[in-house]
Amino acid sequence: MTTIIVSEKNKAAKAIAEALGAIKTISISKRIDIYYVSAKDVYVIPLRGHICEYKNSSLFKSWTKTNPRDIITNPKAIEKVPINYAAPYIKILKDYSKKADLCIIGTDADIEGCNIGLYDALPYIMQVNAKIVVSQLWLSSLQKSEIQQKFNNLIPPKFSWGASGEARAIIDAVIGFSATRELTNTLRPLLNKFKIRFTSIGRVQTCLLYLIYLREKEIAKFIPEPYFNIDANLIHQTGFFNAHHEKNPFKKEFEAIAKIIFDKIKNEKIAKVVDNSSKIIQRGPPSPLNTSKALVLLTKHLKITANMALNTMNALYLNQIISYPRTDSDVYKPDFNHRPILEQISSHSNYGPYTQNLLKKKRIFPTKGYKDAGDHPPITPLESLEPSNPKFENKLQVKVYDLLTRHYLALFGENATESKQILKLLIKDEPFKSEIVALITEGFLEIAPFLKPHYDKMIQIIATDIPIEKITLEKKFTQPPPRYTDSSLLKLMEKNNLGTKSTRPLIIKILQTREVIKRIKRQYLITELGNFIIENLTKVWLPFLKPDFTRKVEEKLEEIKDEKRNMADVVKEVKKDFLDLFDKFLSHKKNLLREINNYDPIKIPNTAIKLSQPSVTSSYCPVCKSDKMKFINLKNKRFLVCNNDTCKKFLSLPKKGRLNLLDSTCSICGFNVFEISLRRNNKYYKYYLCPKCWNESFNSNNGKGFCSNCEEYCIIDGKCVKK
To answer: Which candidate among 33, 514, 615, 683 keeps its CA 20 to 30 Å from the CA of 235?
Structure first.
């Protein structure tokens, strides 16, 4: 019986063929090989991912002569067509399936893989051989033993998984094509000023951009509030430890009370122990890694993008080093045999001693997570490779493998033991408290030190009187919420059910490519263009931006996968829901057009970022006096530039710190005064500056412009007033 196996990528195809027997490579072209296993009469055909895509039909080719709304209502508006590189792959599928009795779908074992195999490739096979029998090869790794075992135990095709992927493709095409075209046509005058051809709109990516915008808005509106801490530095036999007043932090309204307490105890030399208790805490090992947890782990500790992390894991999978990296499961099935993996790793130069100890103590059963999705086991190292092994293609693969392997080994480790000592003290009659958490035994943390929290040194307190080294009253400021990183964005998307474990990294990358967000120092910031789009869409199209709409779509797609819903019904339902949203946008479109006509973006390169700083001064340009000045933030420079194109006056601004434009103006020159807030050594500072005076002082270097150095005036309650 002649068999064809359809694989998603060349490396996977070759691994499958080699596991089944001696192979003969048939070169179709410079880039395409297929693999023949004569002993089993099997042809393994690799694809190149998707070979088909949805596009607008010829009826809707023109962006200006067609109505974008009709893309939603007209079933002939989109069509599935071969991708430009697909022709030779389609020919191979047809040629070899003509003589085949069995077709095995061996594409990646997830929704997208099922969609590629069953909805891209299989229709071409059925065109020439309608009677061919279809099965599926469901692989969690490309190891020889698993391929052989799964080849002998083929499963029925997961058509519902493929249908879920197909519904997603149709829905996202309809929404993306119609919304992108409508918004781009509407925003055309603005996009021309930014030298951008079009702006991309999608149900997931635009919702994510909205959430990033909301965080930026939070930061911009945030006003640091002062608070006060009273702390004592105490002396023990081998060093120092800290105690904190039990009423810390004292809010601004209790500043006077904090100062009274501090004045009362600041010269005290002894703290009396009124309670000394301790307890032992067991810190358990982590749970196994699914895709989401692995991406968070890698982006956090390696400081790489989510897209880079997923691509690296995929490369390790194709090189047969780890199991399939796209999985929702963080629970191993009871019959998963870990012993062979552990025995192999036990000879590794870095992990060997720890693993040998696991085997010696018969610790071969891992921790459990919360979900067995039934697709694949958690991400697992399958080989014991030294860092210099040539199977690694680059240094990043070595680092990713190291983290994944150490995390895997930690699953079998013993608990880490912590000691938590709680001291309650009195300084005069003021209550203080000190918590000292120390590590007693490392347990699993020995192999996974990146999972360690901060620990104190263990100390022994026996005496009831503790000498005081010093007591401090420190003024601090509340902090704004942090900007999103790759790790926190992934968590945000998972929380709001935006995208899938596989698509989330790509969605973040798309927003960067479209120049609506930028990644600077591992933080994501919204650009001037992104800010304008979302700021105005919130006024006219908020229901589309909120996570509720896309969350409901994801739930419907999951129901298709679970065979609870029909693909056609779900697509029809989502189209109807989106049409209602689209019509709401059209009804408010004139408001958006008005904003565009009134908007004049700063004429700067697309690398410019609008942070939480002011966009325009209330003072006029000190040279031409005909227009106000706009704020510009480039990668390494910040400055104000006159809004009048004929005037070239600009004023430099400090490179660091968050700028806040005060209502007050400088009493010397009449220009705006800025408050600059920044953090150094975990302490919050702020100062005031007049940019005009400061720029004039560059030649003399006399410190002019810094309001704290001014002899005549000072800033009180945000106003420049005479001393």
So the answer is: 683
**Domain match, 375 and 427 both:** no
- Residues in CB range of 403: below 8 A, 6 or more apart: 297, 298, 301, 302, 450
Residues 711 and 695: beta-carbon distance below 8 Å = no
Tokens representing 621 are 């340009």
Hey, what amino acid is at 150?
A: K
Cα-based distances in Å from 533 to 527, 542, 545: 10, 12, 11
Is residue 472, in this structure, part of any structural domain at all? yes
With H, G, I as helix, E, B as strand and everything else as coil, classify residue 9.
Answer: coil
pLDDT of residue 701: 66
Are 398 and 523 found together in one domain? yes
Q: Which residues contact 456 (CB under 8 A, 6 or more apart)?
A: 241, 436, 437, 438
**270-283 vs 133-136, strand pairing mode:** unpaired
Instruction: Give yes or no: residues 432 and 392 share one domain.
Output: no
What's the pLDDT at 700?
Answer: 65
**Structural domain includes residue 345:** yes
Angle at 587 between CA 586 and CA 590, to 5 degrees: 80
pLDDT at site 550: 92
Read off φ and ψ for residue 28, nearest 5 degrees.
-90, -40
**What is the domain count for the chain?**
4
Q: What's the predicted TM-score (pTM) here? A: 0.76
Distance CA 115, CA 136 (A): 12
Q: Are 287 and 370 in contact (CB under 8 A)?
A: yes
Reported residue count of the chain is 723
Q: Is residue 323 within 8 Å of 338, Cβ to Cβ? A: no
Q: Are residues 652 and 675 in the same domain?
A: yes
* Contact present, 461 and 273 (Cβ < 8 Å): yes
Domain housing 505? 301-411+483-527
Helices (H), strands (E): how many in the chain?
Answer: 22, 26
* CATH number (domain holding residue 94): 3.40.50.140
Are 24 and 117 members of one domain?
yes
Q: Token pair for residue 559? A: 């129901």
| Residue whose token pair is 């680092």 | 399
Q: What pLDDT, in 10s, does the model give residues 491-541?
A: 999 999 998 888 899 999 999 988 899 998 889 999 888 888 898 888 889
Q: Indicate the SS3 state at residue 426.
A: strand
Q: Please tell me whether residues 247 and 141 are part of one structural domain.
A: no
Q: What integer pLDDT is reported at residue 606 of this predicted model?
A: 34
Query: Which DSSP helix (H) or strand (E) runs through 95?
Result: helix 87-97
User: For 46-86, what is each residue's pLDDT tens digit?
Assistant: 999 999 999 999 999 998 899 999 999 999 999 999 999 99
Are 356 and 460 contained in the same domain? no
Tokens of 274: 């009124």
In which element (H, E) is residue 642 found? Answer: strand 638-642
Residue given tokens 């693969």 in the structure block: 397
CATH of the domain at 237: 2.70.20.10
452 inside domain: yes
- Same domain for 435 and 360, yes or no, is no
Tokens standing for 285?
Answer: 């090992």
pLDDT at 610: 36
The predicted structure's pLDDT at residue 465: 92
Neighbour count for residue 343 (Cβ, 10 Å): 14
Please list the alpha-helical segments (H only) found in 319-451: 339-345, 352-360, 395-410
Amino acid at 19: A
Is 28 among the domain residues? yes
Q: Which residues contact 48 (CB under 8 A, 6 or more apart)?
A: 9, 85, 86, 89
Helices marked H in 222-351 — which ranges?
A: 255-265, 291-302, 306-318, 339-345
Instruction: Give me the residues of the chain with pLDDT under 70, please.
Output: 599-615, 634-636, 680-684, 699-703
Match 């209790």 to its residue by tokens: 254
Q: What are phi and psi of 124, to 5 degrees?
A: -70, -35
